[in-house]
Amino acid sequence: MQRIQSRKLSDVITEQLESMIIDGRLLAGQQLPPERELAERFAVSRPSLREAIQNLEARGLLLRKQGGGTFVKRNLTASVTDPLMALIAQRPETQFDLLEFRHALEGMAAYYAALRGQPDDQEKLSQSLHKISELTQLVDKTAESEALVDFYMTMALASQNLVLGHVMRSLKPMLQDNIKANLEMLATGNVVTGTIQKQRENIVAAIKARDPEAARQASNEHLAFIEDTLLEINRQDTRIQRALRRIEIKS
């Protein structure tokens, strides 16, 4: 039997502090409590806490000022966002959080694209949609995920909202990872693929018809279907894993 290695205490503290940054309990620019207070809160020694802080400092999430305390990095430059995005991508539960966020983001993009989009925007959306349909049969989902991100980016730009376009652009790498992971899980047959493609066609049709509410509704229905399907796949996978464990125990 292989020996199970226990996790270092500093790694556990590092993960907990990371979670506090991700969920907003520690805000950008906020000063961390003194080491003594943090050590008491986590019920650990100060050397272990200090090592965890050094880990986060090395990842670009914390900034230590000599004689002035430790702070969450204020400016979301690449040195901060890259490790933060990687951290979010490594945690499966955040993928559904991102999917929920996409409801608001892409629903808004669809709404304003229908309201303000120009004929050339509509043509670009149709071209993006056609490109996606040509890639759905590929086993490697990289190209399809890239095409989908371009589709949603085109829709955001068609909204003529500079802030929305900037947010979509800044989230592009994380969106592509999320979409690729979803596509790999959804690759269960042509029925699901056909339904999803039809839903995207409904979004574009509503945008071309200049019906903002219908476009937003079509976007929300599309993402709700993906979310429900992924949850069902997860439930089935859990049942399979339980059945396999029972078989292993019996054998």
What's the structural blueprint in terms of helices and strands?
Blueprint: H1 9-22, H2 35-42, H3 46-58, E1 62-65, E2 69-72, H4 78-90, H5 93-116, H6 119-135, H7 142-158, H8 162-170, H9 172-186, H10 190-208, H11 212-250
Antiparallel strand pairs: 1-2
Description:
The protein has 251 residues and is mainly α. Helices cover 75% and strands 3% of the residues. It has eleven helices and two strands. The chain has helices at residues 9-22, 35-42, 46-58, 78-90, 93-116, 119-135, 142-158, 162-170, 172-186, 190-208, 212-250; strands at 62-65, 69-72. Strands 1-2 form a two-stranded antiparallel sheet. A hairpin with a 3-residue loop joins strand 1 (62-65) and strand 2. Helix 5 (93-116) packs parallel to helix 10 (190-208), helix 5 (93-116) runs antiparallel to helix 11 (212-250) and helix 6 (119-135) runs antiparallel to helix 10. The two termini are 18 Å apart. Mean pLDDT is 83; it is low at 1-5 and 76-80.
